[in-house]
């Protein structure tokens, strides 16, 4: 038996949302802090 359309969509959405292909998203503060550290070299 095949899965119901609703169940397939729910599983697909779960897989889609759990992806994080570009790594952790950094906050603006983290980026600014990193820029300051690199500028002092």
TrEMBL record:
One Pfam entry name: DUF6254
Regions of compositional bias (Basic and acidic residues) in chain numbering: 1-14, 26-41
Region annotation (Disordered) ranges: 1-41
Entry-linked InterPro entries: DUF6254
Protein name: Uncharacterized protein
Organism encoding this protein: Virgibacillus subterraneus
